[in-house]
Amino acid sequence: MVKRVLVVLFSMLFVITIVAGYFIFLSPNRINLNAAYVIPWIRNPSAHPDWAVTALEICQDSPFVMPTSGLIGYIWGDSFRPGHRHQGIDIFGRQVAGVTPVYAVADGYLSRLADWKSTVIIRIPSDPFLPSRQIWTYYTHMADSSGTTYIVSDFPPGTVETFVKAGTLLGYQGNYSGAAGNPVGVHLHFSIVRDNGNGKFLNELDFFDTLDPSPYFGLSLNKKFGVVFPIKCSGK
User: Fold this and answer.
1) How many other C-beta atoms are found inside a 10 Å radius of the C-beta of residue 103?
2) What CATH number has the domain bearing residue 173?
């Protein structure tokens, strides 16, 4: 009798674990809802022009301009696998790499490390929402699948603290993943990175080193609070 009860309890626990796993990792509210927009967009973006945000537009009198045009497909806190949280937003432009422009979202000081093929980072001395705090805006995937850069020639590798205005052309969306021959979909990954308190940026790959971009763009971009797709400025 005891053995039978234990078997039933373990069976129930197994079922509960499977169901919980679905809602935590696979439910439409987490990943599939994004894919319902991202996959059709990647296949044929011209079929869904009403899904796109527009480069340089300002939503809700927000302090940042939109860095590029396209579908906001993945947002801050999205989970691509168990234990992972997305550190920024992914904006998917066209099917072809090297076409969709990328712009600076605010005035700041641009740097590009010597080994950065697809990435720049811009220091903003005063956070619009906490003026005593310095923040950094990070832009990546601006290269083709082999690592040939799409960053404009004004910002060669090794660039340090070059002042740029909001709306300055930085480069073009690409599909470089960091490993040649292993491309990602053509898009811009953008994130807001915390300062380490000593004038340097923290590790953008660590979710907790980044900030929720929602207030900076006047859009709901935080997975925790639920999002309605497609994500666009209200009234547009």
Assistant:
1) 21
2) 2.70.70.10
Cα separation, 11 vs 81, whole angstroms: 26
Nearest-angstrom CA–CA distance, 13 and 86: 30
Non-local (6+) Cβ contacts of 94 within 8 A are 45, 70, 100, 173, 186
Would strands 162-164 and 108-111 be described as parallel, antiparallel, or unpaired? antiparallel
CA atoms of 194 and 92, how far apart (whole Å)? 24
Q: Which domain holds residue 201?
A: 2-225
Can you tell me the distance from the alpha carbon of 210 to that of 194, in angstroms, rounded to the nearest whole number?
6
- Tell me: the pLDDT tens digits for 19-48? 334 333 333 334 456 888 999 999 999 999
- CB 229 within 8 Å of CB 90: no
Q: What is the pTM of this model?
A: 0.85
